[in-house]
Design goal:
The protein is of the alpha+beta class and 401 residues long. Helix content is 24%, strand content 34%.
Length: 401
């Protein structure tokens, strides 16, 4: 009986140590372990499938992710992996955060900048050098060639007077006055001084006369085709400069009174929210659009850099005297159990910080605590860094600040 009792005690001790050993094998802190890439909280000491999503578990080698002398949530990622993951950074600094209730506007041509090129003479358009909208015309570029009997007759008249003066050998006041009048008539038709000089040299008239642009700008309308007959003064082409544009926005009638109190606006596009344009209200439609109960606003914006393109959607916000606040791009904030962000502490090391936020709009969010001015923040790729951190250190290591 005594021997049996001793046997039971020995078996119990071996069983307890065996359980501890098995438990140690499931501890991800030792050597390596297996986890689900989609559910990092699933940890196993042996390969298998995730009980949540049935994906195959991947092997994770336990590595020391905290550099020596650093405490908290740190991870080291070499430069090559950073480029591969598309990680981008931004500097934490003070910015003006505009109202989140910004209205949507569309970039349109400033009609005061539109210039109409009309036909200088009656005739037939035989060749057209500008056939489509959207292109840019520089001053001096050819526009069209026209056959005009009236222009042809005036060219012959000038050439005859020029040859008469040249052959007579002695210039008379009457001949000079007649030739000068004939030359002025050609200049008024739109011929250039160079064209008249070439006419004098060749001593031959051409049935087609080419007209050149006296303005530079983008073509927004073409009203002619080759072979078309036109009258003197017929509108042919419209061009405009985009150095100054309109932003057209729509507002409900009950919001117009608020807008009239402040006629200055901020304009920015989603493609580049860092470029902020100052706009001035120039027009409010006196009519309400039928069936829509909205009025049209037109805001003039300087577009010297040419980044605002006709038809582009932009955001418009009233200018107010607001103090700049510490703000970062919204893409840098991870909205999980708590708000966190990754800060680049040196070339290959990133630190996860908990933060508190304040006001925000579509692009920016105010930082109340957790970050300071000058911090280098991960603006794109923060979720990838967070996932890498979980795989390297385990879910239980997160948020231990």
């Amino acid at each position: 009986m005594k021997q049996f009792s001793v046997f039971i005690i020995v078996c119990s001790i071996l069983f307890i140590f065996g359980c501890k050993s098995e438990h140690a094998n499931h501890n991800p802190e030792s050597g390596s372990y297996y986890t689900c890439p989609m559910h990092p909280s699933v940890v196993s000491s042996t390969p298998g499938s995730c009980p949540v999503c049935n994906m195959s578990l991947i092997k994770v080698e336990k590595k020391k992710s905290v550099p020596e002398g650093q405490q908290g949530n740190f991870i080291t990622i070499d430069k090559y992996k950073q480029e591969l993951a598309g990680i981008k950074t931004d500097t934490v600094k003070f910015r003006n955060i505009f109202s989140a209730s910004a209205i949507i506007g569309t970039v349109a041509v400033d009609e005061e900048q539109v210039k109409v090129i009309s036909s200088r003479a009656k005739g037939r358009i035989d060749k057209l050098f500008v056939k489509a909208t959207g292109g840019y015309i520089q001053s001096g570029n050819p526009l069209y060639s026209i056959y005009s009997e009236q222009l042809l007759a005036d060219e012959k008249e000038y050439l005859a007077l020029y040859e008469k003066t040249k052959s007579s050998g002695s210039a008379s006041k009457l001949n000079d006055e007649m030739r000068g009048a004939a030359k002025n008539k050609l200049l008024l038709w739109g011929l250039t001084g160079k064209q008249i000089s070439e006419l004098e040299k060749s001593a031959n008239t051409s049935s087609l006369i080419t007209f050149y642009s006296q303005e530079s700008g983008y073509v927004i309308e073409v009203n002619i085709t080759e072979g078309m007959y036109v009258e003197e003064g017929s509108p042919l082409i419209k061009i405009t400069s985009l150095d100054q544009v309109w932003i057209e926005a729509q507002l409900y009638s009950n919001e117009i009174s608020k807008t009239m109190d402040n006629k200055s606006f901020h304009v920015y596009s989603e493609s580049d929210p860092n470029d902020i344009y100052n706009g001035t209200l120039v027009y409010i439609s006196p009519l309400i659009e039928e069936g829509r109960r909205v009025q049209i606003l037109r805001i003039r914006v300087d577009n010297a850099k040419g980044k605002l393109i006709r038809g582009m959607m932009v955001s418009v916000s009233s200018q107010r005297n607001t103090q700049p606040v510490l703000a970062v791009p919204k893409s840098a904030i991870l909205l999980e159990k708590m708000k966190t962000a990754w800060v680049k502490t040196n070339e290959n090391t990133f630190e996860q910080r908990m933060i508190e936020t304040g006001t925000q709009n579509k692009y920016w969010i105010e930082i109340l605590s957790g970050l300071k001015q000058g911090d280098i923040l991960v603006s794109e790729g923060a979720y990838l860094i967070s996932s890498e951190f979980i795989l390297k250190s385990g879910a239980g290591q997160r948020h231990k600040h």
